[in-house]
Structure formats: structure tokens, C-alpha cells
Amino acid sequence: MKRWMGKMGSMVALALSITLLGACSNGGDAPKETDSAGNPGGSSAKSSIVLGFSQVGAESGWRTANTKSIQESAKEAGFTLKFSDAQQKQENQIKALRSFIQQKVDVISFSPVVESGWDTVLKEAKDAGIPVVLTDRAVDSKDSSLYVTFLGSDFVEEGRKAGQWLVDQYKDATEEVNIVELQGTTGSAPANDRMAGFAEVIAGNPNLKVIASQTGDFTRAKGKEVMQAFLKAHKKIDVLYAHNDDMALGAIQAIEAAGLKPGVDIKIISVDAVKDGMQAASEGKINFIVECNPLLGPQLMDIVQSVVDDKAVEARIVVDETTFTSEQAKQALPERQY
Ligand code: GZL
To answer: Domain of 105: which CATH number?
Structure first.
């Protein structure tokens, strides 16, 4: 359990940080901010708890659902949301966090686009007495006092689930099974961890071989482009492991354009379970989907309220999620919320 520092401690730190910010803020315009309804400028009235949120971008169906959940939950909670879209650039997130510090928001939350390079700006937030809540993706900082908690999935476990399905499918294989892998954004926690968890589990079957692994940056366009290259370079591909549905859906376009049947000629495992991915799975084009729950908004707002109320918060909060075969996806599709 963790608590944020008391007010007095932060007043002293605040005085110090104003000097620091003068030295390290790099000017330039901070990315545009919107309020919880998505209107530009964020709302100035300090009518309630003010939450500054820096979002990765809008790169995938998962991200869109995550943003909707956060904006709707902030509105529901009556919080003033200052929301910034970083277009998948770390420098934009750092600018946004510095802007939130200068605006003296009550709490900062963000989904770090990559794991590294956050200590300086997180220290500025700490010195300013502003608590930080990580959601969705983690940072690799050694100093866990720089944030109150990390709310998000266990990506290593997601990779293990993907790998275990493959091990079960090919437990009697006598020939080599050629796997190609579409990695998420280079340096991001989901890409690093989904790769590690998958590799850990398939190591149990020497026939399962990753013959190519490259980033598709979590987008459909890049997923299609990289899959086209894989198909050109390798005459026998048995399995595609995509770190998210959007890259899998782009790859399906490339596979079909090559005259092959996705889910049949090339087995496909994906992660997220967004609607379009579940639709493809229900049609047998994706064989197994590991769910990654984007609906973090309600839990995030509860955490923000607890932090403001100086209540203890778990240092790590893992979200519940499951998996779907094609048949299970067909059954679940009508009820899916995203
Ligand atoms: C995972 C999230 C990833 C999704 C992708 O929590 O960070 O980023 O799996 C998204 O779809 O782009």
C-alpha cells in the first residue's frame, strides 16, 4: 500500500520545483488539451478534482476504447479532466506532464508510450507535490516513490497465454513450426513483455521457432506492411503472433492479398480482443485472442479520489482479463463493450 507525501512536505517541495521548472521547461507549445467531453482547452473552472491525463495517442482500437473509458469516467466522477494526446511521441508526453505541473493539477496520470526516460519529469512532479498514477503501461524507473500505483494488465502473462495456446496446438508436431511475430511499439512495456512471456512458454517445444520478429508499432498500416515483407522473405510461415489486433488485421489483408487463408494457411494469435479483432476471430481468421482490457476509467477515477483523500492505494493493480478461441469469440461478440 502507498500514500502520497503530506501537504506540508509538498509545500516546501513546491517552492523548490518552481525554481527547477524555470530551468528545465523547454518552452514550446504544450500539446492541445481537451476536457472530459473532448472539448479543446480543458475546462478552467476549478470546480472539482483536476486530473491531468497524457494519453499515448490514437493508434489502435484498444487506445480509442481506453480514451473513451477515461473521458466518460472522469465526467461521471465530476472531475475536471485535462486530456492530452501525445501522437505516440514521448517528448509530447513529457511536455504535457510539465504543463500539468505548471497548472498545479491535483493528480497526474498517464500511459507511458515507452518504458524508459521518465525519471526527470516524474521527479519534477514529486517535487511539486503532485501525485502520479500510471495506467496501462509501466515505466522502468528504479524509484517507485515517483508514482503512487500502476493500474494495468500483466503483459508477460498475456504473452504466456498466447504461447501456451500454441504449445497446446502443436504438442504432437514432428516438423518445425515457423512463427513470425509483429511486435508492438519498440521500447513499450506491452511489446517487451508480450514478447518475453511468449518466448518463455514456447521454449518448451523445440519445434516452435520464431523465424522473424519486427515492430508494427501497434498499427494496421504497419502490420500490413511488415507482414507483406515477411511473406516475401519466408516461403513457409505457419503462425503469426501479433501483439495487438490492429496489426493482426493489417496482416490479414496482406495474407489474403497473397492468396492465402488467414486462420487456415497461417494460424493467427492476437492480443486485445477489440470488436474488429473479435469479429475476425468469429470468422476463423484469427484463431486465438488474449484479452487486454482497455476499460480502465472507473478504476482510475477511484484511485484518483483515494489519492486526493490521502487514502492508501495498492502499489500495483492488475486488471482482470480472459482469452477467446474463434468459437468463444463468436459467442461473446454480441456482448462486447469495445
Ligand atoms: C496495452 C496497450 C497496447 C494495446 C495496443 O495495454 O498499451 O497499446 O495492446 C495499444 O492495441 O496500441
So the answer is: 3.40.50.2300
Q: In this model, does residue 159 exceed pLDDT 60? A: yes
CB distance 271 to ligand 1 below 6 Å = yes
Going by pLDDT thresholds of 50, 70 and 90, the confidence category of residue 1 is low
Q: How do residues 229-278 score in pLDDT, each as one tens digit?
A: 999 999 999 999 999 999 999 999 999 999 999 999 999 999 999 999 99
Say if residue 216 is in the same domain as residue 282. yes
Residue 242, domain extent: 155-292
Contact 304, 107 (CB under 8 A): yes
Distance from the alpha carbon of residue 271 to the mean position of ligand 1, in angstroms = 9
Pocket mutation for ligand 1, best pick of 292, 293, 295, 321 (most atoms within 8 Å of C-beta):
292
The pTM is what?
0.87
Domain count, the chain: 2
Please give the number of the atom of ligand 1 that sits closest to the Cα of 152: 6
Cα–ligand 1 centroid distance for 61 (angstroms): 9
Q: How far is the CA of 46 from the centre of ligand 1 (A)?
A: 32
Asked whether residue 250 falls in the same domain as residue 135, the answer is no
Gap between the Cα atoms of 251 and 240, Å rounded: 9
